[in-house]
Amino acid sequence: MSHSLSCYRCGASLASLTLPLSRRDACPACAADLHVCRMCVYFAPAAPRQCLEDGAEDVKEKERPNFCDWFKPSDSAYDAAAHAQATNAASELEALFGDGPSAEPASASDLSDAEKLFK
Predict the structure, then answer these.
(1) Under a CB-based contact definition with an 8 Å cutoff, are residues 25 and 35 in contact?
(2) Share of the chain above pLDDT 70, in %
(3) Angstrom distance (rounded) from CA 22 to CA 73
(4) Which of 1, 70, 14, 20 lies closest to 42, judged by CA?
(5) What sign does the CA torsion over 17, 18, 19, 23 have?
(6) How far is CA 96 from CA 82, 84, 101, in A?
(7) Buried-most residue among 20, 33, 54, 101 (CB within 10 A)?
(8) Is 17 helix (H, G, I), strand (E, B) or coil?
């Protein structure tokens, strides 16, 4: 069955999967679970409970597989602009802070300067 679904997390094509998506289906590229709220046509971050379907049960974890009877996969679940913005923000943070805490211990003069502040 041909369809134009793509993974909500990485944007990879899900054309190789058959519909309806089962609770155990995962993205072949990033292994993200697919029967999740974030992949549903009724998912709306601005809506109460983030769901447009009033009859659906409340699901706390929107990226975990669930048994929702209202689930219908969305062909627009992947937001390329938001993904690019998040990737850009992460790279800017890495450039600003580096890839981890400094391994250099503080020198004795640095410590004495700091101690002078409290005298």
Answers:
(1) yes
(2) 87
(3) 11
(4) 70
(5) negative
(6) 21, 18, 12
(7) 33
(8) coil
